[in-house]
Amino acid sequence: MKRILIAFSFAASSALLFAQEAADKIRTITVDEAVILAADNNISLKQQRLSLETLERKNKTSWNAIGPSASVSGNLGLPLDGLVTGKEASSKFTYGVSASVGLTLTPSLFTAVRDAKLRYESGKTGYETAVRQIELNVRKLFYNLIYTKESMALQKRNMETAKLRYENNRDKYNRGQLSELDLLQSQYAYESQRPAIESAEIAYQNSIASFKQVLGISQNEKIELSGSLSDAVPPDSFTLTQSVDDIPAVKKLEASIEMQKNSLLATRFSAYGPSLSASYSWGLNGSDKTEGIKNHQENHSLSFNVRIPLDGLLPWSNGSQSIANQKASLADLELQLENEKTTASLTIQNSIKNIIQKQSQMDMLDRNVEIAQKAYDMTLTAYNHGSRDLLTLQNASDSLLKARTERELQVYNLICAVLDLENTLGIPFGSLGEDK
C-alpha cells in the first residue's frame, strides 16, 4: 500500500510539474504563422470549405442528367376462387415482368452542366476572397498589437526616466540641494504615469485575448509576437503592373455576368428549344394453368417523342417575359462592371497617393524625433546645472514621447495602407514593391 501511495504521489507530482511547465511555456508567433493558424481554425472558413466541397461534387456529377433512366417491375397474382366459390381456379398463379429504358435530351442539359461549373468557379473565388479577408484582418491585428506593445515600451522608458529623476532629486533634497516643492513635482511626474501604463497593459492583454480567439488557440496558452513594425514597412517606391481586369472585385462581377449569360441561354432554350425523348420497354406476362399448361406472352415497345414549345413566340407569354427580365439583369451587371472598373482605378490611385503622402510624412516625423531628442538632452543638461526648472524638463520629456509615438503610429498606418492596396489588387500580402 505504501508503494502504491508513493507511486501515485510521484505520478501526481509529475503531472502537476508537466502542467506547470506547459503553462509557463511561451509560444512565439510570427505574422505568417498567425495567418496559417487563423486559416486552419476559423469557423467561417470551415463552413465555406464545406459549401465549396458541395459545389465541387455537383460540378463533377453535373453530366448525370444526360444519363438514361431505367426501371424494372414485376408482379405475381395468386387466385382465390377456390376459397370463395369452392371451385378449382383456372390457374395456379399469374406473373408479369417489365423493364424500360428512357432517354430525354433537351438543350438545357448544356446550360445545366455549365451552370454547375460556373457556380463552382464562383465558389472558389468567394472562398479565396474570404481567406484573403481573414489574412488581412489578422495582419492588421498583429501589427496593431506590435504598435501597442512598442508604444507601451516607450511609456515605460519614459516612466523609468522620470523615476531616476525623482530618485536623484530625492538625494539632492536629502543633501539640502533641492527644495521640497521640486521634489514633490518630480515625484508626481513619476507616479502620475503609472495609471496610464497599467490601463494600457490591461487593454493590451484584452487585445491579446481577442487575437487568440481569431487564431483559434486556447486562452490559457501564453504567446509572444515575433516581429516589428520596421520589418513590414514597404520600400519607398514601387511600380504597379496589375491590370484593372485582374482585380478580384472586377473578376467577381465578370463571373456574375457569365452566370447571368448562361441563365439567359437556359431561359431561351426553355422557351424555344425542342426536346427529344426515346424509350424502350419490354414485358413478359404469363400464367401457370391448373392442367399443367404454361403460357406466356412477351412484348417489345420502342417510342420517340419530340416536343417543340411555341409559348416563347408569344411576346406576352411567361417565357418571353422571363427572357426580357434576364436581358435587363445582364445589362445591369454589365453597367456595374463598367462602374467597378472606374471605381477600382480611382481607389488604386487614391491608395497610392495616400501611401506616398504617408511616406513623405515619415521623413518629417523622423526629424521631429531627432529634434525632440536633442531638445530633451539639452534641457536635461540645463536642468542638472540648475538653469531649467522641472516643469520645462517634463515638457521636453512629454514632447519626446509624443514624437516617438506619432512616428510609430504613422508606421502602423502606412503598413495598413499598403495591406489595403494589396488586398484591392489581389496580390500576395507583403509582395508590393518586391523585385519580381
Task: Describe the 3D structure.
The structure is a single chain. This protein has eleven helices and six strands. A hairpin with a 4-residue loop joins strand 5 (about 275-290) and strand 6. The protein has about 425 residues and is of the alpha+beta class. The protein has helices at about 1-25, 30-40, 45-60, 80-85, 110-175, 180-190, 195-215, 230, 250-270, 320-385, 390-425, and strands at about 25-30, 70-75, 90-105, 220-225, 275-290, 295-305. The strands form two sheets. Strands 2-3-5-6 form a four-stranded antiparallel beta sheet, with no helix packed on it. It has a two-stranded parallel sheet with strand order 1-4. The radius of gyration is 40 Å and the shape is elongated.
Layout of strands and helices, then pairs:
Elements: H1 2-24, E1 26-29, H2 31-41, H3 43-60, E2 69-77, H4 81-85, E3 91-105, H5 108-174, H6 180-191, H7 194-215, E4 222-225, H8 229-232, H9 248-272, E5 275-289, E6 294-307, H10 318-384, H11 390-425
Parallel strand pairs: 1-4
Antiparallel strand pairs: 2-3, 3-5, 5-6
Helix pairs in contact: 2-5, 3-5, 5-6, 5-7, 5-9, 5-11, 9-10, 10-11
